[in-house]
Design a protein that fits this description.
By secondary structure, the protein is α/β, with parallel strands linked by helices. It folds into two domains: 199 residues, Peptidase S8/S53 domain (Rossmann fold, 3-Layer(aba) Sandwich), CATH 3.40.50.200; 69 residues, Immunoglobulin-like, CATH 2.60.40. Helices cover 22% and strands 25% of the residues. Helix 1 runs parallel beside helix 2. The longest helix has 18 residues. The two termini are 23 Å apart. About 2% of the residues have low confidence.
Length: 289
């Protein structure tokens, strides 16, 4: 966890602190950023943003969040809690098109009154989707409590995204964002307050299982993990091919009819191994040290 917010003040420098935290997270191999903050007004009103600035390209934090998304990090951001205020729009960085912004609904699936409105000023549908942020149970100081806000709806969505990335590690992140929108409750319609609607992670999971080559894993193991020079596969089945993907889902090396693959020239970080047998396709995550 990285804290970039200075609670004592509201200054533009906090956007740069967020970017520094994102850069450090990227160096650590982080795959998801969930951010429950947003900006539109500052202590010095000369730096305030207008709705026209909520275009995903004006603020430093929106541009930084967009770069993080382009690098393969799944970036989620709270749309904001200004739905009942004179400024009722979303806040930055949730205005960036590549950032998956989250609105709030109650237990009945109705938009929370406080949930900020989109779209962004260029007309991009925002928020992208919504989860329950009204009357939501969370944990604090060894106790449970009920809270409200897009700041709790967003980490709930991030938990679902984490499960999807574990299930489908090589799925392109932009494709994952698109499919999450397409399986939300209102799609292809949308609402200015809850975007494409309530997110349905189970629906996306089943959709991918039914339409892709991914199957339940058989017994096998890869070693050593982390790997330094060579990554080996132990399997009772004949291996037809091994293929390594980077964090952006790009294929960077492939070998045929072998149970090992060289990784010595890879940069340190997280990778994914695709194992093709006669009738199965298996995936496993590994680290290069």
């Amino acid at each position: 966890m990285y804290r970039s917010e200075n609670a004592a003040v509201e200054v533009p420098e906090e956007e740069l602190y967020w970017i520094e935290a994102a850069e450090e997270a990227d160096r650590k191999g982080v795959e998801i950023i969930t951010s429950s903050l947003g900006y539109n007004v500052f202590d010095d009103s000369r730096y305030n943003y207008t709705y026209a600035n909520m275009n995903g390209n004006t603020s430093f934090i929106a541009r930084g969040a967009g770069i993080a998304a382009e690098k393969g990090i799944f970036v989620l951001a709270a749309a904001g809690n200004s739905g009942q205020q004179p400024w009722h729009y979303l806040m930055t960085p949730s205005d960036n098109a590549k950032v998956f912004s989250i609105g709030s609904v109650d237990s009945a699936g109705t938009a929370s009154g406080f949930s900020s409105f989109g779209p962004n000023s260029l007309g991009v549908v925002k928020p992208d989707g919504s989860t329950q942020g009204t009357g939501t149970t969370t944990v604090y100081d060894n106790a449970t409590l009920i809270v409200n806000g897009t700041s709790i709806a967003t980490p709930i969505a991030a938990g679902g995204v984490a499960c999807l990335i574990q299930a489908f590690p090589t799925m392109n992140r932009e494709q994952m964002r698109t499919r999450l929108r397409q399986t939300a409750s209102l799609y292809p319609a949308s609402s200015d307050q809850i975007g494409y609607g309530i997110l349905n992670f189970g629906s996306l999971y089943n959709l991918v299982l039914n339409t892709s080559e991914m199957v339940k894993k058989e017994k096998f193991s890869i070693f050593p993990n982390p790997a330094k020079n060579i990554l080996n596969v132990a399997s009772e089945q004949e291996i037809q091919s091994l293929e390594v993907y980077d964090n952006l889902g790009r294929s960077i090396r492939k070998s045929s009819n072998q149970k090992s693959i060289k990784v010595e020239d890879f940069a340190k970080g997280t990778y994914y191994l695709k194992i093709q047998t006669k009738d199965k396709v298996l995936y496993e995550k590994f680290l290069k040290e």
